[in-house]
Design a protein that fits this description.
Blueprint lengths: L5 E11 L1 H16 L6 E7 L2 E4 L12 H7 L2 E4 L6 E4 L3 E7 L9 H18 L5 E3 L2 E6 L2 E11 L2 E9 L19 E2 L2 H5 L5 H16 L1 E5 L2 H7 L10
Parallel strand pairs: 1-2, 1-12, 3-4, 9-11
Antiparallel strand pairs: 2-6, 3-5, 6-10, 7-8, 8-9, 9-10
Helix pairs in contact: 3-5
């Protein structure tokens, strides 16, 4: 990537259901790949859902259908890499849909950049996020605080990361997170032992995303996305 900053769109969808946002991602991905839409970084906060990446092990979901219903959680097998993970309230879930030809055509580089965004964000709050050799994501000691799982097609990315700010960690007890048996999961609230919210963290994360990817984010309202991709309008939850 050259030294000139790219300008890309940014939209916060708020609280959403996973299925509608997955459909929206697919539509935007196609439009970006066909040069009909700009690169965009989407953030949102999902309702309770478990997602299993392609090649993941379904046995890593420890809950049955009745358990999921009781917990108010959905389940999807999806087209990203990685194993099983949880998304829910209290997480910043980020979906950059970027044409890597405008950045660097290197998937490993891209994953490390996403990790770097999280690591720098944590540093702002005096927390040391680290990488774990041979594993994707960001850790505090031996506990994962951010999971990554992506899909890249025609050098355009989709899916992304889930960053634990203050989720209910009990939901991770229904899975073997990312298929890793010997390590745990944590959150910023758990480590800091204080109230911290997505509204506290999100501005820092956006600033670090701009810095790491050398871009300028231009805000786009959800209604604008709905106008562009009306067939896949995101269902906002109350």
């Amino acid at each position: 990537m050259d030294n000139k900053k790219n300008s890309i769109r940014y939209c916060n969808l708020g609280r959403t259901r996973f299925g509608s946002v997955w459909e929206l991602q697919k539509s935007i991905h196609t439009a970006v790949a066909e040069n009909r839409f700009e690169d965009i970084f989407i953030t949102n906060e999902h309702e309770h859902v478990y997602t299993l990446g392609k090649g993941g092990n379904a046995n890593h979901l420890l809950a049955g259908e009745s358990d999921l219903t009781e917990a108010g959680a959905e389940f999807y097998s999806i087209d990203r890499g990685g194993d099983i993970t949880y998304h829910g309230p209290g997480q910043i879930v980020g979906y950059p849909i970027l044409n890597l030809e405008r950045f660097k055509k290197d998937i490993h580089w891209y994953l490390r950049q996403l990790e770097e965004v999280i690591i720098r964000t944590l540093k702002h709050f005096d927390m040391e996020g680290i990488r774990s050799e041979g594993e994707t994501g960001v850790w505090i000691g031996s506990e994962k605080i951010a999971a990554l799982g992506i899909k890249v097609s025609r050098w355009v990315t989709m899916h992304g990361f889930a960053f634990n700010v203050n989720p209910d960690l009990a939901y991770f007890g229904k899975i073997i997170p990312c298929g890793i048996f010997h390590k745990g999961v944590t959150s910023m609230a758990e480590i800091l032992k204080e109230d911290i919210t997505i509204s506290n963290v999100s501005p820092v994360l956006l600033q670090e995303f701009e810095s790491v990817f050398h871009v300028t984010l231009r805000s786009m309202d959800k209604s604008e996305i709905d106008m562009q991709f009306v067939r896949h309008s995101v269902q906002q939850t109350i």
